[in-house]
Automatic annotation (TrEMBL):
Residues where S-adenosyl-L-methionine binds: Y29, G74, S125, M196
Binding site for [4Fe-4S] cluster 2: C260, C263, C277
Name this protein carries in UniProt: GTP 3',8-cyclase
Residues noted as binding GTP in the record, renumbered to the chain: R16, R70, T101, K162, R265, A266, R267
Binding site for [4Fe-4S] cluster 1: C23, C27, C30
Pathway assigned in UniProt: Cofactor biosynthesis; molybdopterin biosynthesis
Reaction it catalyzes: GTP + AH2 + S-adenosyl-L-methionine = (8S)-3',8-cyclo-7,8-dihydroguanosine 5'-triphosphate + 5'-deoxyadenosine + L-methionine + A + H(+)
Species the sequence originates in: Siminovitchia thermophila
Family: Belongs to the radical SAM superfamily. MoaA family.
Keywords per UniProt: 4Fe-4S, GTP-binding, Iron, Iron-sulfur, Lyase, Metal-binding, Molybdenum cofactor biosynthesis, Nucleotide-binding, S-adenosyl-L-methionine
């Protein structure tokens, strides 16, 4: 089957699969506790794709050109028996890389099982080492030590580890240098993510963003850095290396230097909706097709027609007005 290109000639290469919309954190920039409180209604079980349905989808996407899968959420390690999904996905022909993005809380328990199941890498989110700052950000009072122990367990298990830090003005800027030092010494890549206007609940505005340039200037006052060339078309992070070591840092510059021109990524929500942009307001239902037709044909036709018509360029075109648009999907639902 031929690979797919959208209208802007961007190939379909990566697929992010959200396996749950639930989370054990309430990060203020993603699931603010006052909105995602005890009365918040998450997806009911019957609406969530089964592992068999996710596998069928992944097979079809791989035939259409996808080579990389990333499991995400909500918090993907909250999905029961997630390792059995990973073992199924590793057997799909054409998929050469499976990663998972996690807040790290359950990694100490799960790292070895994930590795045994065939997972290659984890991206662990950690926004501060300083306990008071981190406890406040994660909204559940969880200490950074819990996540640090998870990261160590992942390294011991032989998983590739990168750490993601969302930087917010006046919240955790003071943690940029301590985080950089800590992970440089551990030989772990740290990636700084610009705070994004995903969803409608996190009170985002341009003033709360710390740009790559600002972060880079802080780092450059402490460390000698040199740029690293991208490994492949569509690589999202802008990478640098500490001059005196092999350890890298990266920047995800969705706000200050958008990269829609090389966006090769599709996303599936836990209830089987297909999104062609993180900032979309509408997904395309694949669950109904999965549950109605046992053969691949209708699914292939749907995915093909959606991707071939795709013209998304939200970050390239971001304006004060688009930021205020009210119907954007939430990050915890689409998985980042
Ligand atoms: N729960 C997992 C975790 O936190 O790693 C996976 C899902 S989470 C939605 C995926 C990534 O999105 C995390 O690295 C998180 O920090 C990032 N994220 C969430 N909200 C964000 C925002 N408003 N701006 C930038 N990154 C955000
Ligand atoms: Fe949960 Fe991840 Fe969102 Fe934090 S960023 S609330 S850990 S889904
Ligand atoms: Fe891709 Fe949409 Fe992000 Fe642009 S804004 S890089 S099209 S997900």
């Amino acid at each position: 089957m031929e690979g797919l290109q959208d209208k802007l000639r961007r190939p379909l290469q990566d697929l992010r699969i959200s396996v749950t919309d639930k989370c054990n954190f309430r990060c203020q920039y993603c699931m603010p506790a006052d909105i995602f409180g005890p009365d918040f209604t998450f997806l009911p079980k019957e609406e969530i794709l089964s592992f068999e349905e996710i596998e069928r989808l992944a097979v079809v996407f791989s035939k259409l050109g996808v080579r990389k899968l990333r499991i995400t959420g909500g918090e993907p390690l909250l999905r029961r028996h997630i390792t059995s999904l990973i073992s199924r996905l590793t057997k799909i022909e054409g998929i050469d890389d499976i990663g998972l993005t996690t807040n790290g809380v359950l990694l100490t328990k799960e790292a070895e099982n994930l590795k045994q199941a065939g997972l290659k890498r984890v991206n662990v989110s950690l926004d501060a080492l300083h306990d008071e700052i981190f406890k406040k950000i994660n909204g559940r009072g969880v200490s950074s030590n819990v996540v640090l122990r998870g990261i160590e367990a992942a390294i011991r298990a032989g998983l590739g580890v990168k750490v993601n830090m969302v930087v917010q003005k006046d919240v955790n800027e003071s943690e940029i240098i301590p985080m950089a030092e800590h992970f440089r010494d551990m030989g772990v890549t740290l990636r700084f993510i610009e705070f994004m206007d995903v969803g409608n609940t996190n009170g985002w505005n341009f003033q709360k963003v710390v740009t790559k340039k600002e972060i880079f200037n802080k780092l450059a006052a402490h460390f000698e850095l040199e740029p690293v060339d991208p490994d492949y078309f569509g690589e999202v992070a802008k990478r640098y290396r500490y001059k005196d070591s092999k350890t890298e840092i990266g920047f995800i510059t969705s706000v200050s230097e958008s990269f829609c021109g090389s966006c090769t990524r599709a996303r599936i929500s836990a209830d089987g909706k297909f999104y062609t942009c993180l900032f979309a307001s509408k997904g395309h239902d694949l669950r109904n097709i999965l549950r109605t037709y046992p053969d691949e044909g209708p699914l292939v036709d749907k995915i093909r027609s959606v991707w071939e018509r795709r013209t998304d360029r939200y970050s390239d075109e971001r304006t004060e007005e688009s930021v205020r648009r009210k119907e954007k999907i939430e990050m915890s639902y689409i998985g980042g």
